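Annotated sample (chain length 263).
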Amino acid sequence: MLRAVLIASLLLSFLAGAVAPASAEPGPEPTMTASGEVLPHNLPRGSFAPAALRLGFTSAAVDGSPELAGIAFDLSRMVRFDTAGLPSCPAAALYAPRVSARRVCADSFVGTGSVASQIAPPGQAPAAVSGALEAFYSRSGGQPRILARVVTGDPLPLTYVIPFEIVERGQSAPSLVVTRMDRLQGQCRAPRGGCFGQPYALEGVYSRIESLKMSLHRLVAARCPAPGRQPAAMLPLGRVSLSYAAGGTLSAPLVQRCAVSGA
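Output written by the structure step:
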């Protein structure tokens, strides 16, 4: 009996010594669910018609989860962006205090949405924040962009901008891409220092996004690829991809059903 107790005691001591400290344990593996839709579902067969485009993803954001490095919405040739005639909204207008960006850049306004994330100012614990998203068309240095302005509430009243570049891929298939999440600029909307002390403006603390939803209109056109005289078809909308600062990428396809208008 004494021998059995001694063996059990030695075994427990070994196991206790073999357990790594919590700080050395790897963080949770990221997961992602994508969503996308073109509206209306009834679209022309051979020509493009004005449409609305809904894009989004959900990716668990918990303490220790990897930070996003980039976001890509790669669309199919069944969707295109037409920016002709849209004026450019300057990025500075989206940060102007006590000024409505929606009013200043009314003619550049192209969409709405929402963002939920965890923001961890330097030296502070992460805080869960949700914000409303407003999207504006912008063109700087010859590069067209969708500037997604996010305004959050308590406990961190912030304004930051996610700059999606509009990239035309092979055969005019467009993508919305942001490649440097660690460079995102943001600032506090409370009195100076009211959000996170100093500095008043922070860069690169907005990369743990739990969910993003964005609905675009005005610049979107789409068609239904139903072959022959078929009245409906599956519309390959594209793919959502998330890349992470620690390495690795998650992606998911977007597919919906469409019907031929007038069929």
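Annotation: DSSP finds two helices and 17 strands in the chain.
Annotation: Residues 192 and 200 are 6 Å apart (CA to CA).
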